[in-house]
Each structure stands twice: as structure tokens, then as C-alpha cells.
Amino acid sequence: MPPESPLVIPAQAVQPLEFKRIQSLTYQMAGIDLRDGKEALVGARLNKRIRELGLKDVSSYLSVVEADRTGLELAALIDALTTNFTSFLREPQHFEFLRSVILPEMADGASLRIWSAGCATGEEPYSILFHLVQALGERRVGEVEILASDISTRALTAAEAGVYPAARMRELPEEWRKRFFQRGVGTQEGMVRVRREWRSRIRFQRINLMEDLASLPRFHVIFCRNVMIYFNKATQQKLVRRFATQLESGGWLLIGHSEGLMGMEHELSYVMPATYRKPMNRRG
Ligand SMILES: C[S@@+](CC[C@H](N)C(=O)[O-])C[C@H]1O[C@@H](n2cnc3c(N)ncnc32)[C@H](O)[C@@H]1O
After folding, report:
1. Residue of 115, 150, 202, 216 to mutate, ligand 1, most atoms within 8 A of C-beta
2. Sheet holding 202-206, edge to edge
3. Confidence class of residue 108 from pLDDT cuts 50, 70 and 90?
4. Are strands 191-194 and 181-183 parallel, antiparallel or unpaired?
5. Is the CB of residue 127 below 6 angstroms from any atom belonging to ligand 1?
6. Concatenated DSSP letters for 55-67?
7. How far is the CA of 77 from the centre of ligand 1 (A)?
């Protein structure tokens, strides 16, 4: 007898009206500009979540998202539609700039607040922290505040756990592997974890960048890299202006190298690709 073929559940097709509803939801709630033509991709990505919740179609799923006041189901929807791709030391020019230009300007003993906005699974804020430890020493780093945020609760949970496949250590210098990570044993074989003493130096918080940022402190450096790619120009411009308000005088905004602020009106000065600065002595 031939083996039974596996049960294949067909992907939920997204109908044009449902796609419009998804576009409007993700735009209103997260600023995400979902372009036409992505219906098949979106259907494939939402399918898993629809099955997990035992729902019958995309339409019922969207009603669940709209009715959920906690915002968690919206976060799951955003998770399905965005990528949390990141890596340690991604776009290394910024870390070199942090070490050679930004940190030397900071007076000893002065406060230093750094925000990794859209930190995904944490490689960016950990890369920032490890550079600070090397450049400033452990004692001074104790006084630095690092905030790491993302809209995705799934990504943030991973960031806070700080567990990565050991193969990812190839991206890092030998000295860092020993100092900042511990090897997993038993069921964690093949994984590494950022040591607790370093994980505890970063504050992880769920922040939707479309929401009010006024409760946050002002920062000396904001990393917001490879996040604005999801937003349209108008939303990007509004966000850049809000980041400018959130920066200390003379503070820095670092964006992804494939992003740019060309044609946008804002008060930041261009320093070099993907690097902007708020003028000194002006408060937004
Ligand atoms: C490609 S990752 C970038 C990670 C890291 N900054 C880097 O450059 O490697 C983009 C992140 O932006 C987050 N994101 C998208 N829309 C957001 C929003 N409205 N508020 C906060 N985070 C958002 C996604 O959840 C995702 O983790």
C-alpha cells in the first residue's frame, strides 16, 4: 500500500478587501507601509497564526486583531509581516564612529543615554554595550543607560534572553566571546548566552515608534537602523523630527545605510552617510 500523503492545509488566500484592511491596520497602528502586490506573501505568513488560533480565515483573524485592546495580537500580526533580521556588528562603521568620535567627546562622569530603537533580537544593543565596555571600562559603563526597544514582543523576549546559536560567534572577536558569553550545556549545547551581568545592563522595553515618546528621557545617541524602511516618507519624516526632539543638544541619530533623510525637513545636520547630529545648544 502506498504511504499516506501528509495532510496539507492550503494557505489562506488574502482577498483584495482583506488586504486593504491589513494595509490600513498596519499603517494606522505601526506606520508600516505594506505595498500592493504582497497578498500572496502576507497570506503565507498569516497562515500559521490563523491555524494557531483555530480560526477559519483571514477575515476572522483581522476581527481578532481589531478587538484585542492589549495590542499583543497586533504585535503578532506585525511580526508576521516584518523581518527581525539583524546581526552582531551590523554596519560596523557606526560602532567605529561611536568608539572614535562620540565617546571621546563625552566628558568623564557625564551621563550617557543610548537608545537602540527597533533592536529586534538584541544583537545591536549588545554590540553597543560591548564596545562601551571596551572603550570606557566596566565601572564607567555602569553609569551608562542603554534602552533597547522594539514593537515585537517575540523579538524582545529573545533579546532579553540573549541566547544565540554558537555559530554566530564567528561574527565576534575571540576576546568578546570569552568575556561576554557563556557556552550552553546539555539541552543548550550549540548555543551561547550573554552573561547575566551584561544582560542586566540593558533595559528592554516594548515601544511602538508610532506612539507618544514623550515619557522617554532625552538621549545622547539614538540608533534606529533598518526600521524606517517599513515606513513611507511622510511617516519617516515625522519620526525623524520626534527623534530630534528626543535627542540631547549635540546628540546623534544613526540610521541604516540603505536609508536616507534626503528631501526631509528636520533640524539635524548631515555628518556622514547614515549619521546625523542635532546642533549644539538648541533644545527641540
Ligand atoms: C530589520 S530589524 C532591524 C534591527 C536592527 N536595528 C538592525 O539594524 O540590525 C527591524 C525591526 O523594526 C521593528 N519595527 C517595525 N515597525 C516598528 C514600529 N512601529 N515600532 C517599533 N519597532 C518597529 C521590527 O519589529 C524589527 O524588529
Report:
1. 150
2. 202-206, 144-150, 112-117, 219-224, 247-255, 275-277, 269-272
3. confident
4. antiparallel
5. no
6. -SSHHHHHHHHHH
7. 14
User: Directed axis angle between helix 72-81 and helix 153-161, to 10°?
Assistant: 80
Contact 147, 216 (CB under 8 A): yes
Domain end residue (candidates: 81, 109, 128): 81
DSSP 238: H
**49, 150, 199, 201: the active-site residue:** 150
Same domain, 172 and 59: no
Predicted local distance difference test score (pLDDT) of residue 139: 87
pLDDT tens digit string along 125-137? 999 999 999 999 9
For residue 34, the domain's CATH number is 1.10.155.10
Q: How many residues does the chain have?
A: 284
